[in-house]
Design goal:
This protein is an alpha+beta fold and 82 residues long. The chain has helices at 21-26, 72-81, and strands spanning 35-40, 43-48, 63-65, 68-70. The strands form 2 sheets. It has a two-stranded antiparallel sheet with strand order 1-2. The longest helix is centred in the last third of the chain and has 10 residues, at 72-81. The model has no long low-confidence stretch (mean pLDDT 87).
């Protein structure tokens, strides 16, 4: 699938849309994978959810602070600064 190619879908009575398989494959998303949905500049943005530390990028961050993820290592560094 080419970048920027659009596909038209209708929203059902429950507010759902079905994402085309081709688009899902482009994002390396498989069945039951969590996705993150946001609105940026008036458009829906759907991306594969990754639980990453906001500082170092480590996957599977263990702590939440104001909706941001932190790994144990970065949390300890912050604690030691103060």
């Amino acid at each position: 699938m080419k970048l920027g190619t659009g596909i038209v879908r209708r929203i059902d009575n429950l507010g759902r849309i079905v994402l085309p398989k081709e688009m899902i494959k482009c994002l390396d998303i498989e069945g039951r994978d969590p996705v993150e949905i946001s609105i940026e500049k008036g458009a829906f943005v759907i991306k594969k959810y990754q639980n990453r530390c906001v500082f170092c990028g480590k996957l599977k961050s263990e702590y939440d602070f104001e909706e941001k993820k932190l790994c144990k290592n970065c949390l300890e560094k912050i604690k030691n600064k103060f």
